[in-house]
Amino acid sequence: MPSQPSTSGISALLRSVRGGRVPMPPRPKGRLVWLHLPQEVPADAVAALRLALEDFPLLITQAEVARPGPLHVALPTGRRAVIDQFIAHWQPELLLWGAPDNGLAVVRRADRAGVRLLFADLSEQGLSPSFRGRHLTEFLHYFPRVLLGDAANMGWFKKHGLKEEQVVRCNPLAEIAVPLPENEALQRRVSGALGPRPIWCAAGVSRGEVGAVLAAHRHAVKAVPNLLLIIAPRAAPDVIAARVMAEGWRIADASPDTPPDPKAEVLLAKDSEHLPTWMRLATVSYMGGTLYGPEAADPFGAVAVGSAVLCGPMQAPFTHRYERLKAAGGLMLAGSNGALPAKLVEAMAPDRSAALAMQGWAVGSEGAETVQIVAREVNALMEVPHAGP
Length: 389
Hints:
Rossmann fold, seven-stranded parallel beta sheet
């Protein structure tokens, strides 16, 4: 007897269009919350949402999902039967619609099924230009609470029936400056050995840019006496050490095992394992790779530990993070290696470094504040007695 042919992708698609059952991951136990998020949502923000809402299983959907997981799938599209099948399988108690696209069809079916509804404008691009008119008016009608950023055009939303008492202020989901693990014992030991010396850190530098870093240090020590430079190289620490010694600097190891030489002018770490600790000790951290490439250091590493960010113009692959910091006044930009010495001295000034660090932290923590607001509103709605469909 011939074997039955396997189901093709085309036949599965046809079944979905006709409203037939499509296999889905198993539903976890518990009161499930469904979050439909923007396509560009940062992975760290999703992780923070899962942690903030850990009391509930979270189903994450997006318009497209490159790598689906058990609780991370593409939003169902097509006929009402397909959406109804999706909702019936997952049985969410709450749907947060946080994407910019027109979600009226899904929200209608969710409301019909008795799902609690919350809208949050979580996309940095705002709502899709095609999502307007009577569709938007009906869409907003379903939500008792609407989370909007400060940049939202309230007059425009009010024209579509939104009332002031429905609005909660909430910025888009943005990347979060998450502190990396630090060695507190190392920090105390180094601080005790060095005392109140001013410190700056060159994080992730290559041997090609160490000359520019040392030139900046030579200039800065004239304005900031007893200034210490900590170099945490991207690679080739021995080559960099030789260059430092060749230029006449007193160098010592930045080691987790032994206290540093208090008379050293440059400390050299062998690797980046303890980079968060070195940057926390530093008033200013220069982001390696931003003068000559090939890859810029992540500025959120410095932001997370309260160190002011100093950088050059080459900022990939973290261009978006640098742009956000620049827009908020949270970094000091040196347009060339020749500009680095003066920009370092400017950044080391106490009032300037404090302002840079404060604005940098405001940018790096913005996404965390959004997560807290979303979690608060979700939890509040989940506490409301459920009347059912």
